[in-house]
Sequence to fold (78 residues):
Amino acid sequence: MENLLNGVLEKQKDIDLIIEKAAPDWPINKNNIIDRNILRMGSFELLFADRTQVPPKVAINEAIELSKSFGEIHPASS
Fold:
């Protein structure tokens, strides 16, 4: 977790630029803090982390699960 945190902090400006280019209608500063940081963590793992440690499928799944549990938009109840 410490490596993830330090990596996100180190690459935050680059990550934010990439997110804003990929989703221009959703500016990073308009997302709530939890959603914003979940996006940053997932993006860091996809773009900069060691893929032998965190395969892309795992990084995406972890971000989705964090969003479901802690994000602003919760899935509808069944």
